[in-house]
Design brief:
The structure is a single chain. The protein has helices spanning 7-20, 42-54, 77-86, 112-127, 146-158, 183-201; strands at 36-40, 59-63, 92-96, 134-137, 162-165, 172-174, 178-181. The chain has 203 residues and is of the alpha/beta class. The strands form two sheets. The protein has a five-stranded parallel β-sheet, with helices on both faces. A two-stranded antiparallel sheet has the order 6-7. Helix 2 (42-54) links the parallel strand 1 and strand 2 (59-63). The longest helix has 19 residues, at 183-201. The model is unreliable at 1-23 (pLDDT under 50).
């Protein structure tokens, strides 16, 4: 993604500017994109490398398979791992977690709504960024996940600096037996998220 210039036209431009005594204004160097942080469970683990390739700035992934939102509690390990990445200016935080809290799973917590809202507030507080953009990727469209999907959708709808990024039609390995996204699906979603970062940043 570099732009090359021929030497001869560049020399002609310099000579013309010298003769006319008109200096060409210096073009400002564009700032590099701010970092993204991605956190979540197994879907985020799969997505991470694809998002890192699609986004033109740094991407930090803090994710682990099969974890309930309980592991992002203030004293638990995913939260402790996430903290250092929040101590810098960020373009956005991408959150993709919830399948381990769907109805009927042994890891599900009974108070997902309270935990989710607390986590989002804690993230912004730790980042010292009350308006930090948050992109929440929809969890798997299974009946068992309806409550988690509703909680996340309502929160993003009510928050001026958050958006819900749809992933329902993204290809899965063997839906519904294996709900994990394919590499091709992760590639599509990564570019969708990069576009969403630009859109939410313009609000």
């Amino acid at each position: 993604m570099s732009v090359s210039r021929a030497l001869k036209p560049l020399r002609i431009l310099v000579l013309t500017s010298a003769i006319s005594c008109v200096a060409s204004p210096a073009q400002p160097t564009p700032l590099p994109p701010l970092p993204l942080v991605l956190t979540g469970q197994s879907q985020a683990v799969i997505l991470g490398p694809h998002l890192a390739r699609a986004y033109h700035g740094p991407v930090t992934t803090v994710a682990e398979s099969g974890l309930s939102i309980a592991f992002w509690s203030a004293e638990d390990r995913l939260w402790r791992q996430l903290i250092p990445s929040l101590h810098q200016p960020l373009a956005a935080l991408v959150f993709w977690q919830g399948e381990s809290d769907c109805a009927g799973t042994s890891t599900a917590v009974p108070d997902y709504a309270a935990r989710f809202g607390d986590l989002m507030s804690r993230i912004r507080r730790e980042a010292d960024a009350p308006s930090l953009p948050v992109l929440v990727v929809t969890v798997t469209p299974l009946a068992a996940c309806a409550n988690v999907r509703q909680i996340q959708a309502e929160w993003t709808r009510e928050d001026a600096h958050a958006t819900l990024v749809a992933a329902d039609e993204i290809p899965r390995v063997d839906f519904p037996a294996d709900i994990h996204i394919t590499d091709a699906g992760a590639e599509v979603l990564a570019h969708r998220l990069v576009a969403a970062v630009t859109t939410i940043g313009d609000r």
